[in-house]
Amino acid sequence: MEQETPRTTGAVLPATFGQVDLSALAAREGTPLYVYAAPALRERVRTLRNALAGLDAGIRYAVKANGNGAVLRLLAEEGAGADIVSGGELQRALRAGMAAADIVFSGVGKSDAEIALALEVGIGRFNIESRAELDAIQRIAAARGGQAVAAVRINPDVDAQTHAKISTGKAENKFGVSIAEARSWFDAKAQWPNVRLDGLHMHIGSQLLSLEPVREALARMAAFWKELEAAGHAIASIDVGGGLGVRYREGEQAPDAREYAAAIAQALAGFGGRILVEPGRWLVAEAGILLTRVLLEKRGEARDFLVLDAAMNDLLRPSLYDAWHDIVRIGDAGGDAVTYDVVGPVCETGDTFATGRTLPRCEAGELMAILGAGAYAASMGSTYNSRPLPAEVLVDGEHYAVVRRRQSLEELLAGEQPANDWRRP
Ligand SMILES: *Cc1c(COP(=O)(O)O)cnc(C)c1O
Q: Which residues have a catalytic role annotated?
């Protein structure tokens, strides 16, 4: 867990959440509650679109960051397609109105059923991660009498300089294939007549705060694209993945969309095909907060604990990645400062949002917001400890809409049954 020097957190609620009465919203809809700001979502996707304006580039939003249908619909209205990693995400993207042609399918383990579904609906492109997957897509496409469009996911073997658990572009990671292996696929591509292999893909990691690893990986991709073209293999698409980091902590500096676009433009200068980008976190993280109430303040012998009604099952990132999330008290900023370990009620020591965090003194019932909860929060949620999934709301100015209602205990338990129907498999 993060070791922090005690200090009063300078974190403030983003202005976009100040327009709606969060106290009234929490009173009406209960807590924990995910709140997404439509203006912030629009602003991000427009900023990225504008930054990419000089390029023949498309945005393929990584659905796993936040797959809520209303969020997807909003991003689709702004022109984004989707990067999906499962058949479930494919269905979500289609239901949200995204065109199948604007969907790319990534992931190291696609099942036959998922591949068949993707071919049936006509997705834009498969990002292939292994020889076995290439063979499977060939077999399934041939059986259907169609052709799959595909890119090879290259593992460029660069250090993304991020947390080990979200680093994906080193040779020892499970993702992608080496340039040498990809080269052998292109050289033998007649072996897979039902796969149109004409794209390159990479995704080196997540929460990248520096563009240097991106530049390094792009340079390797660009050199390979040029080599392939020189060898007579036309490359129609280069997908540079996602990974752009966001500001989780006051004072942190996330990369700028224009600098990112400039890095892409520079590395791929002269490329005549389509460029795809697959941001997830960058589009949605800062557009979401997790509203939660203080259950109680517990003065321990060694430390003071602030126990919230949100827990690791609602926001796993601190437990999983030692991630920092700014936390603010809603309402006036007065009162003396106290150093707390901010925790949830789940029976795990890892159910800790922050260690040694200095906040204004909080009392039971007080409303708090955990910032940066628009990405990898609800989408990673579970019902551990039999805690029903929280509701999700979208706010726009002074208004809000419930975009996923709070799960009931009946819904949580649905599907379970007593062992009274014994059969032979
Ligand atoms: C997760 C993922 C992304 C999105 O990553 P972010 O860090 O959220 O931008 C993009 N592409 C692929 C293949 C992914 O697995």
A: 347
Report the Cα–Cα distance between both ends of the chain, in Å, rounded: 45
Give backbone dihedrals phi and psi of 188, rounded to 5 degrees, phi first. Answer: -110, 20
Alpha-carbon distance of 100 to 118, in angstroms, equals 8
**Ligand 1 pocket, Cβ-based, cut-off 6 angstroms:** 62, 64-65, 83, 85, 106, 203, 206, 241-244, 278-282
Strand partners, 293: 367
pLDDT higher than 90, residue 347? yes
- With a pLDDT cut of 70, the percent of the chain lying above it is 98
Q: What is d(CA 110, CA 315) in angstroms, rounded to the nearest whole number?
A: 27
Cα–Cα distance between 250 and 270 in angstroms, integer?
39
| Per-residue pLDDT at 321 | 93
pTM score, two decimals?
A: 0.95
Q: Ligand 1 centre and the CA of 179: distance in Å? A: 20
Helix (H) or strand (E) holding 232: none
Crossing angle for the helix pair 131-144 and 112-121, to the nearest 10 degrees: 50
Question: Among 48, 60, 83, which residue has the most ligand 1 atoms within 8 Å of its CB, making it the best to mutate?
Answer: 83
Q: How far apart are CA 168 and CA 313, in angstroms?
A: 24
Lowest mean pLDDT among 128-132, 314-318, 330-334: 330-334
* Structural domains for the chain: 12-36+286-413 (2.40.37.10), 106-279 (3.20.20.10)
CB-based contact 414:389 (threshold 8 Å): no
